[in-house]
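[Primary structure, fold]
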Amino acid sequence: MKLSDMITRFKSDPTTTISGWQDKRFLWIIMAVMSLFMVILAHSVFQIWLYMRPCEQCVYIRLAFFAMTFGGIVAAIKPSNIGLKIVGYVFALWGSVKGVGYSIKLNKIHHAAHSDDIFGVQGCSPEPTFPFNLPLDKWSPEWFKPTGDCGYDNPIIPDGVQLSNLQKAITDFYADGWYLWPPSHFMNMAQATLITFGICLLFLVVAAACWLITLWRKRQSAALAENSTSTGKYA
């Protein structure tokens, strides 16, 4: 289908159009790939390559992105299957809601850590508590073990490590911590993930509502058609 046709359909009936998109794989795959990319970026680039240590809230945020990745993969198997779609929605919505919560908490801690409010730096522990008491930090410590302090995400270079010229340039760029634009301290990591989770949550809620409304319309139409058929038989 051409983009112009999709836009025309969306303008004429946005609810049905958005509902129909969910029966295609591309939206679910986009969500899964985006979520997995965020986790790999945080782990492989910022943690391993640039030596930014993850805090407790950081590993919770990773789990939330992993949940969205799993939800997207499950739904993408066969989006038209209601069971798979529901499972996908459950994991994706859980991940986005929890991600928003974790990001808000981390942002508050970050703000307190960089202000005079010494009592505001709370809620950060080296011993994380994951949902259902899953020992993810023991199963996969490289991914889920907090090794840093909440609110402080500047690179900490281990003694004896020789950085490449590129590594040194980038670690110097992030010397004051992770920001979308470090020179002006514009948008810290918690704010960036909050926006990401928030956009995903908004779309998921709208998409789920459109899907449920479309299902209700179909059932109403089927019921009316059945009543019309029954009335015709006895007329």
About this structure: The chain has a mean pLDDT of 91. The two ends are 44 Å apart (CA to CA). The longest helix spans residues 189-234. The domain at 17-234 is CATH 1.20.1550.10 (Bromodomain-like).
